[in-house]
Amino acid sequence: MGMKLDSVVPWGRSYEEYVRMFSLSEEDIRRPILGCGDGPASFNSSLTKLGGQVVSCDPIYQFTAQEIKSRIDETYESVIAQMRLNEQGYLWNTIKSIEALGELRMRSMNLFLEDYDAGKADARYLALEFPKKLPFRDNQFELALASHFLLLYSQHLSYDFHLKSINEVMRVAKELRIFPVLTLDGKRSPFLEKLIDYFNGRGFFAELVKVNYEFQIGGNEMLVIRQ
Fold first, then answer.
1. What is the DSSP annotation of 142-158?
2. Residue 226 pairs with which residues in a beta bridge?
3. Nearest to 82 by CA among 96, 98, 97
4. Is the dihedral of CA 145, 150, 125, 76 positive or negative?
């Protein structure tokens, strides 16, 4: 895997945020879940403790807990500084301040780090890179979640990358939810309509769904694609 640790900026979201970003119901969290690009989020750790079944894929999992922790410590201040510059692009109602955001992210990342070695041993954290073929059988998962990865990086990852990645996820999962549908600059991904048309034209059901979560202003929708 060609990823270098110094190209990664780890930023982990919490279990509660996942539940709200993806409108996860009681029924959803009992389904076998695939996390796409979870990074150092605490969703896997927390859901596993609740008895759920989840496998997270991310190339960052090729590194050790200590390496990831060092990288978090190295990049944390610059991410917070970046947030201060872009403060007006966010809604500060649930998360009250940049300090509160920093505490929430660190808490999530620490929960991830505490669980990481056990999770790797259980094959819950797999070092996999998109859009490569995933080592899962067809329809192995009921639900796949892509948090802050697909669509968000539309300026960096091509339409073709998105198409191949989503097609491969739809092979192994019956449903995919992508959040947010905005890019880093707060605008809707230029690939969104094209992807919806593509999947609706191929016998899938693709639509935008409002969610009860908005931190990035305007970022309160997810793209849902299901078989």
1. SEEEEESSTTTTTTTS-
2. 175, 205
3. 98
4. negative
Question: Encoding tokens for residue 51?
Answer: 């008895």
The pLDDT mean for the chain works out to 96
Looking at CATH, the fold of the domain delimited by 5-226 is given as Rossmann fold (3.40.50)
Which two three-digit tokens encode residue 133?
Answer: 């073929």
Residue 3 has pLDDT above 90, yes or no: no
Cα(191)–Cα(117) distance, integer angstroms? 36
What is the structure's pLDDT at 4?
Answer: 85
- Backbone φ and ψ for 87, nearest 5 degrees, come out as -50, -40
Of the candidates 151, 161, 170, 216, which has an alpha carbon nearest to the alpha carbon of residue 34? Answer: 170
**Is the bond preceding residue 40 a cis peptide, omega within 30 degrees?**
no
pLDDT, mean of residues 52-57: 98
Task: Please give the order of strands across the beta sheet that includes 125-126.
Answer: 125-126, 54-57, 33-36, 143-147, 175-179, 221-226, 205-210
Please report which residue ranges of 33-131 form alpha helices under DSSP H.
Answer: 43-49, 65-85, 98-121
User: Given pLDDT bands bounded at 50, 70 and 90, which one contains residue 2?
Assistant: low
Give domain limits for the chain: 5-226
For 98-151, the pLDDT digits (tens) are 999 999 999 999 999 999 999 999 999 999 999 999 999 999 999 999 999 999
pLDDT > 90? residue 6: no
Residue 181 CA to residue 195 CA, distance in Å, equals 11
User: What backbone phi and psi angles, to 5 degrees, belong to 84?
Assistant: -60, -40
